[in-house]
UniProtKB/TrEMBL annotation, chain A:
Pfam families: ThiS. Transmembrane segments: none annotated. Gene3D superfamilies: 3.10.20.30. PANTHER family: SULFUR CARRIER PROTEIN THIS. Signal peptide: none annotated. InterPro entries: Beta-grasp_dom_sf, Mopterin_synth/thiamin_S_b, Thi_S, ThiS/MoaD-like. It comes from Thermoanaerobacterium thermosaccharolyticum (strain ATCC 7956 / DSM 571 / NCIMB 9385 / NCA 3814 / NCTC 13789 / WDCM 00135 / 2032) (Clostridium thermosaccharolyticum). It comes from the Bacteria. This is Thiamine biosynthesis protein ThiS.
Length: 69, 273
């Protein structure tokens, strides 16, 4: 099945929960990443409940500090 | 509108734009922008806003200019090393454009002073040019409470991000990033490095957003997170939504007072070890 991850097409072999997907895709900083699924920002508590399905769009959003010192 | 001949010439490239005109330039001259942090992001933002003729620019920073700042914090010069950043910033702006009234706040922002600072001149727009998450969440929460628009940004290595919050019009920073990450979980520029130009690119976008807001033209980065990857030379404008469960701007907000997460003062002490 095909999903979109941060704007790129990505093939995955089956449906996964968001929590599993973080491992399958080896997402960096998985403890702190924000996940937006089809325009909805997910609560971290729901990562193991929500399933990513064929055609879904996933955005991994990262904290970025920096700026001053 | 009472422009001097010098002002007509200084701002002629603005005035000729149909989106700006004499009316728009007058709005810019009457506007007040607060810039928190006069570092990598705040320096270029302050300089472009000063050149544009923003009438009142507030600079907030407790830090002093360090040699390691000069690779990117272009408002400060070699001769300014050791000087308070707000003073060095004010001097540069005064040299650039005498139309700008610079107000300096030589302090770290906290729950105790941020509301007073924003109220001091009733700033129209706030630019977050800070380097730490306690400050970023504090600015967000204060702006949500006070119904003030602000531009968030962050830079690290070859990457940057920015978004614009406008009250009642889109998500806040906390909608996207719910709480500050644990200390040291996310690297700082000091730990990870940053290409000097990143502040220029992203800070100048923040200044652009401030000017567009003041002029009331175009579309802001409200409801979008703009990310930039300099190595790929790729911008992505990611649509982001308000989170109903947001602790500060959601339907049932649980945060009703400003929070001081681990203060930046601790970082300062470490800096001087």
């Amino acid at each position: 099945m095909n999903i979109k991850v941060n704007g790129n097409d990505q093939k995955i072999d089956r449906e996964y929960t968001v929590k599993e997907l973080l491992d399958v895709l080896n997402v960096k900083m998985k403890e702190y990443v924000t996940v937006q699924l089809n325009d909805e920002i997910l609560s971290r508590d729901d990562f193991d409940k929500i399933i990513v399905k064929d055609g879904d769009t996933v955005e991994f959003l990262y904290y970025m500090g920096g700026g001053s010192r | 509108m009472n422009f001097s001949n010098e002002q007509l010439e200084r701002y002629s490239r603005h005035i000729i734009l149909k989106e700006v005109g004499a009316k728009g330039q007058q709005k810019i001259l009457n506007s007040k922008v607060l810039i928190v942090g006069t570092g990598g992001l705040g320096a270029p933002a302050a300089m472009y806003l000063a050149a544009a003729g923003v009438g009142t620019i507030g600079l907030v920073d407790y830090d002093k200019v360090d040699l390691s700042n000069l690779q990117r914090q272009i408002i400060h010069r070699t001769k300014d090393i050791g000087k308070d950043k707000v003073i060095s910033g004010k001097e540069t702006i005064n040299e650039m454009n005498p139309d700008v009234n610079v107000i300096t706040y030589h302090e770290w922002i906290s729950s105790k002073n941020i509301i007073d600072i924003i109220n001091d001149k009733d700033y129209d727009f706030i630019i977050d040019g800070t380097d730490n998450f306690p400050a970023k969440f504090l600015i967000n929460d204060a702006c949500v409470f006070m119904k003030k628009p602000f531009s968030h940004a962050g830079i690290i290595r070859f990457e940057g991000q920015t978004m614009t919050y406008v009250p009642d019009e889109g998500p806040c920073y906390r909608c996207v990033f719910q709480d500050p990450p644990p200390k040291d979980a996310v690297p700082t520029c000091k730990q990870a490095g940053v290409l000097g130009v990143m502040g220029g690119i992203i800070g100048t976008i923040q200044a652009t957003e401030a000017l567009k807001y003041i002029l009331g033209v175009g579309e802001l980065l409200t409801g979008y997170l703009l990310t930039f990857d300099a190595l790929k030379m790729e911008f992505r404008k990611i649509k982001i939504s308000k989170r109903k469960s947001c602790q500060v701007c959601g339907i049932h907000p649980s945060i009703k007072e400003l929070i001081d997460y681990a203060g930046p003062q601790c970082d300062l002490k470490e800096d001087h070890k």
